[in-house]
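== Sequence entry ==
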Amino acid sequence: MTRFLTTALRRPLLAALATAALGGGALLPATVQAAPEEVTYLLPAPPNSPAFAPWMLAQQNGYYADENIKVTFVTARGGVDVAKQIGAGNAVIGGAIGDTPIIVRANGVPVKAVAVLGAGSLTMLSTYEGSGIESVKDLKGKTMTVMAYTDTTYYALLGSLRKAGLNKSDVQAQAAGPTGVWQLFAGKKAEAMAGVPDWVVNAEDAGLKVKLLPREQLFQSMAQAILASDEVIKKNPELIKRLVRATLRGMQDIMKDPKAAAATYVKAVPAYAGKEASIERVFNLYNQYVYANQKVLGQMDEKRLDAVQKFYVDEGIVAKAQPLADLYTNQFTGVAR
């Protein structure tokens, strides 16, 4: 076992052994922490996006280390790819959207959401002052940007249109990618945008006076989620619990003090040095629209998940509904350290 010990721990332990041998005394038990468990954590996009701040704060503040875990973040090609890689056993855990298991489980990928980061929807519908758009109904005939036609933000847009009595043919949706989605909007080449809080602040920083459409008019899709495979949940639930607990601590930091969290985040992601005020505004949007009002931190709302799945089936995004128990578990939420 000593080959796993650091030099700092090995020396006092050897000294204690020598003392016990020479003095004939009993050796007191020595508590030595095992080497950190190494985990590859898949994210659906590059980790330097503020959307992944809970994960970066958990890393920066040592919350994963507190759980004796060494996390390496790896970027996958979207949430569906994250789910497929986890389901194939190529990674233990990953990030996506709470909707993702609905999509992939229908195709036989055995993953569940083990925590959801907030009770709100990640997707916002934005317009700007002078656009003449005051409600979702006013989007009829308008041009708007989305990241991609297979992205959950686009599906959330479709849900909001349906709620307002519209359909996808009533708007001109342009798939512009993660940068173009807000740049075209900021340049007023589109009158509205379906996107995440990060992009709203990007557009504001570019000089646009952004208005958010009332959230009560929007389709209640899901927030970000932590995914794990059925196999790992069954065989190593303690590891999943530790990973969930550490990540939720990062989210709590944002909820408790967004200004302090922004300063810490910039230390974790130096590319944002000097942009602390913008990051704080992003965090305030997450607090208000995404993280807030979750009764138990990280817990999935089954009724909401059921409604989202019914929409996906009705829209033909998935062929048939899956048992809700196959899509999530709340066994790892509400756990205190």
The longest helix spans residues 237-256. Strands lie at 37-43, 69-75, 93-97, 111-116, 124-128, 143-146, 172-175, 192-195, 210-212, 224-229. The chain has a mean pLDDT of 90. Residues 117 and 298 are 5 Å apart (CA to CA).
